[in-house]
Amino acid sequence: xxxxxxxxxxxxxxxxxxxxxxxxxxxxxxxxxxxxxxxxxxxxxxxxxxxxxxxxxxxxxxxxxxxxxxxxxxxxxxxxxxxxxxxxxxxxxxxxxxxxxxxxxxxxxxxxxxxxxxxxxxxxxxxxxxxxxxxxxxxxxxxxxxxxxxxxxxxxxxxxxxxxxxxxxxxxxxxxxxxxxxxxxxxxxxxxxxxxxxxxxxxxxxxxxxxx
Length: 212
Hints:
Blueprint: H1 3-9, H2 12-19, H3 28-44, E1 51-55, H4 61-69, E2 74-79, H5 82-88, E3 91-92, E4 104-110, H6 118-131, E5 132-139, H7 163-170, E6 174-178, E7 181-184
Parallel strand pairs: 1-2, 1-4, 2-3, 4-5
Antiparallel strand pairs: 5-7, 6-7
C-alpha cells in the first residue's frame, strides 16, 4: 500500500472507529490479560523479557501495560500511521522497509501483516525474524479465519492469505509454540514435543528444562 494512502487510511477517524467506538477491537483490559499471559509463558519458558518491540503499536496499550507492570523493560514502539505516531508517541517506521540493528526479547506483531501485500508481508517477517532473539506474539487474520470474524464490525479491507503462506515464511525464523507465540530459532528455547509444532518436535534441544 503506498505510504500516502496508508497514512490517510489509518487516520483519526480509523482510530476513533476501531479503538474507541462501538466497533472497538479491544481495550486496555483485553490487552492486559493478553500481555500478562504472554509474559507469564515467556517466564515459564525461561525468556526474561527485558526489551520489547511493539510493531504497529496503535494506541500503545502494550507499552502502557509494560510501563505499569514491567517498568524495567525497555519498550520500543513503531507505527506506520502518522496520526498514531503523533497521538501516542511512536516512532514512524514501516516494518516492511525498516529493520533495527538491535534485537529484542519479545516482539509484539499484533494485527499488522494482513494490511501488507505479499511482498511487504514477506519482508516484514524477515525483518522481525532478524530482530527477535526470544519470543514473538503474532496475530494475523488468515483465509481460514472467515467464520470467526464479525464482518459487521471487522475491518475487511485487508489482504487475505492462507495460514500456510504465513507458516512457510515464519518457519524459517521461528518455531510455533501456540496461542500466537513463536520462538526464535536463534534462542534455542527447549520445547517438549507437544509444545512445538510437529515438524520441530524431534529437533535439537541444547538447553535443559526442569521437570518435576
